[in-house]
Amino acid sequence: MDFELDELHRTIRDTARDFTNREVAPYATKWDKEERFPAEIIPKLGELGFLGIRIPEEYGGSGLDTLAYATIVEEIARWDGSLALTVASHNGLGSSHILSFGNEAQKQKYLPRLATGEILGAWALTEPGSGSDAAGMSTRAVRKGDKWIVNGTKMFITQGSVGGVCVVLAVTSPEKKQKGITAFAIEMGTPGFRASKHLEKLGMRSSDTVELSLEDVELTDDHIVGELDRGFIDTLKILDRGRISIGALALGLGEGALAEGVKYAKDRKAFGKPIADFQAIQWMIADSRTELDAARVLLYRAAELADRGVRFSTEAAMAKLYASEAATRACNRSLQIHGGYGYTREFPVERHLRDAKLCEIGEGTSEVQRVVISRALLSA
Ligand SMILES: Cc1cc2nc3c(=O)[nH]c(=O)nc-3n(C[C@H](O)[C@H](O)[C@H](O)COP(=O)(O)OP(=O)(O)OC[C@H]3O[C@@H](n4cnc5c(N)ncnc54)[C@H](O)[C@@H]3O)c2cc1C
């Protein structure tokens, strides 16, 4: 196993870092304060190929691997968790479902537009009454002649109001439980399909999170992504890779906060010397450095397994669990190093801490990751 990025991935990292420093870092705090989705940055992300990272070149994408995807998300997250969430969910959920399970017509129709950012992808699994127990959803698609009529509500959907196409999971065969759920690609603007509420959040404030409502939405078999009744089985595979990107997002937030903490510790003086001279501060920095490095190794392992085409569910869950909790600790320590200033919005660490907390919840809570990891051991 290689613990260093190779030349290609170093180039990708440097490109993403340079872009983030120029185009994101100066505005991230402003976007967060305004709680505004920064639509103006989307075409620039598209030009760099960051919106079609794993989409093959034949569909206009960058044709890169999971490690490249994780690297880009990490670099953006160093400065802006919200934008990193946009990139992670667009690439890893909506686009990925169409790429992995869509038919050729759906790929031709959507992937080139998703890759450039002409449209953003959304993915709607969670509902007001079901999150961790995702298969307990109540959104129903009922067959009527040659149509499907879909009714239900989806909750916490990223890009739910700014996206162009959304992969929606709905129950098609209730008696078959999780083997009776189907994925449908629904374009925004389809009659009966709308964002019914914008959600105000602790963090990730400039990413778009909405409740989606489906009222008698008429679809045909052409909207089905993958096979009828196999949507939930496919969803579990989408979530595996998605968890690597949430781990990468967490890692980036932790790295960003740690860098700020180190800088501040060298600048700030107390009792006649830089606070970096105090052992209490040094230990916080050492703990964050060590834990973030451990998170990186877990992430690179999961990404490498994913790219080798072998099972990586447990490894992705471990990487996501550890990286997200390590990131929250690292952000919290960096805020502590900043003292009272850390508690103000003058410094980015409070935003990083608020953003990092989402990584312990989205795409499966920490508790759910522990269920996935322990189940693999206990059922062996
Ligand atoms: C900002 C944001 C963006 C999101 N984006 C999307 C998106 O784009 N698409 C989408 O479909 N969803 C999205 N989600 C939803 C997210 O994936 C869910 O919030 C998450 O899976 C948890 O579900 P829940 O909120 O219903 O919590 P619940 O499932 O109600 O969990 C509540 C608590 O119970 C615990 N719990 C539940 N079951 C178990 C168990 N078996 N063992 C132990 N503990 C358990 C949980 O860990 C948690 O602590 C987003 C959420 C947020 C906040």
Distance between the termini: 25 Å
Q: Strand order of the main beta sheet, please?
A: 1-4-5-8
What is the name of the CATH class of the largest domain? Mainly Alpha
At the fourth CATH level, what is the homologous superfamily of the largest domain? Butyryl-CoA Dehydrogenase, subunit A, domain 3
Bound molecules: flavin-adenine dinucleotide
- Average the pLDDT over all residues and give the rounded result: 97
DSSP helix count? 12
Rounded to an integer in angstroms, the radius of gyration calculated over CA atoms is 21 Å
By DSSP, the count of extended strands is 10
Largest sheet: 4 strands, mixed
- Our count of domains comes out at 3
Portion of residues within helices: 40-55%
Order of helices and strands: HHHHHHEEEEEEEEHEEHHHHH
Can you give keywords for this protein?
380 residues; alpha+beta; Butyryl-Coa Dehydrogenase, subunit A, domain 1; Butyryl-CoA Dehydrogenase, subunit A, domain 2; Butyryl-CoA Dehydrogenase, subunit A, domain 3; 3 domains; 4-stranded mixed sheet; 4-stranded antiparallel sheet; 10 strands; globular; binds flavin-adenine dinucleotide
Structure description:
This protein folds into three domains: 7-120, Butyryl-Coa Dehydrogenase, subunit A, domain 1 (Orthogonal Bundle); 122-228, Butyryl-CoA Dehydrogenase, subunit A, domain 2; 232-378, Butyryl-CoA Dehydrogenase, subunit A, domain 3. It is built from twelve helices and ten strands. The chain has helices at residues 7-24, 28-34, 42-47, 66-77, 81-101, 104-116, 231-267, 279-308, 313-337, 339-342, 349-359, 366-378, and strands spanning 121-124, 140-144, 147-158, 165-171, 181-187, 193-198, 209-219, 224-225, 269-270, 273-274. The protein is globular, with a radius of gyration of 21 Å. By secondary structure, it is of the alpha+beta class. The two termini are 25 Å apart. The strands form three sheets. A four-stranded mixed β-sheet has the order 1-4-5-8, covered by helices on one side. Strands 2-3-7-6 form a four-stranded antiparallel β-sheet, covered by helices on one side. A two-stranded antiparallel sheet has the order 9-10. 52% of the residues lie in helices and 15% in strands. A hairpin with a 2-residue loop joins strand 2 (140-144) and strand 3. The structure holds flavin-adenine dinucleotide (FAD). Flavin-adenine dinucleotide (FAD) is lined by residues 89, 93, 123-126, 131-132, 156-158, 201, 204, 209, 358, 361-365, 367-368, 371.
